[in-house]
């Protein structure tokens, strides 16, 4: 069996003196899609931000490829892609400029590749329009284009289906499955009824916490 990319051991997170989760342990294996589930306020976004290294309000252990994530920080950040529940798009910039900004810190990518990715998310003809003139779904698609040029093995995706139409949802689902088939791992939160073959789940908010 493949080694886990990411392991959480007895994670606990408290916010405003309320325990969001405790004794939460799971492994994220290559070749899997894992959905974080739970009602509003149960801590899905918080957990994803903890996994991405964007929230320090937790205790327990996080391992990256078998070693403490804190000692592997650079390697972890190089191999992880996080998309937050807000599209994170700058309204004055065009989709091409935004996508270039989303690639910051990675190998430079030619404009042609950025434009092809935007085409691939249905934004052909909108690449050079300021994002403030795009719809909510189109702005989300600018951020999603990042997935089409992602080579990071671990994707942490918070509510990426928000504002996306049925065709777009099907395309994202296919992309998640493709990433897993290529040996990557995806952790996703969504209120959309996501059902993928073999999908794992982490249940928050009073349910069982699955050992994946
Ligand atoms: N920065 C913060 N400071 C204090 N409490 C916070 C902070 N961020 C979130 N919380 C609290 O943590 C709890 C979990 O929030 P979180 O956004 O993780 O839930 P969620 O499961 O993603 O919810 P939703 O399904 O509504 O998106 C909420 O009660 C929220 O008020």
Automatic annotation (TrEMBL):
Residue ranges of domain ABC transporter in the record: 6-212
Keywords, sorted A to Z: ATP-binding, Cytochrome c-type biogenesis, Membrane, Nucleotide-binding, Translocase, Transport
Domain of life per record: Bacteria
GO MF annotation list: ATP binding; ATP hydrolysis activity; transmembrane transporter activity
GO biological process: cytochrome complex assembly
InterPro entries for this protein: AAA+_ATPase (IPR003593), ABC_transporter-like_ATP-bd (IPR003439), ABC_transporter-like_CS (IPR017871), ABC_transptr_haem_export_CcmA (IPR005895), P-loop_NTPase (IPR027417)
Keyword Membrane: yes
Keyword Methyltransferase applies: no
Any Pfam family the entry gives: ABC_tran
Full protein name: Heme ABC transporter ATP-binding protein CcmA
Source taxonomy: Bacteria, Pseudomonadati, Pseudomonadota, Gammaproteobacteria, Pseudomonadales
């Amino acid at each position: 069996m493949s080694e886990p990319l990411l392991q959480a051991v007895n994670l606990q997170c408290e916010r405003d003196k309320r325990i969001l989760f405790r004794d939460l342990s799971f492994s994220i294996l290559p070749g899997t899609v894992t959905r974080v589930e739970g009602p509003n306020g149960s801590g899905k976004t918080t957990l994803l931000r903890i996994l991405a290294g964007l929230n320090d309000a937790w205790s327990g252990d996080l391992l990256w490829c078998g070693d403490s994530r804190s000692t592997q920080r650079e390697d972890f950040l190089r191999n992880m892609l996080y998309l937050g529940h807000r599209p994170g798009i700058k309204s004055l910039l065009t989709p091409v400029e935004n996508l270039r900004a989303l690639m910051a810190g990675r190998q430079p990518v030619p404009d042609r590749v950025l434009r092809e990715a935007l085409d691939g998310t249905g934004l052909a003809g909108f690449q050079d329009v300021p994002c403030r003139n795009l719809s909510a779904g189109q702005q989300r698609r600018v951020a999603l284009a990042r997935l089409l040029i992602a080579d990071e093995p671990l994707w942490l995706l918070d509510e990426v289906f928000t504002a996306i139409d049925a065709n777009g949802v099907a395309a994202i689902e296919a992309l998640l499955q493709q990433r897993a088939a290529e040996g990557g791992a995806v952790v996703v939160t969504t209120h959309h009824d996501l059902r993928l073959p073999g999908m794992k789940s982490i249940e928050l908010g009073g349910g069982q916490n699955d050992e994946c």
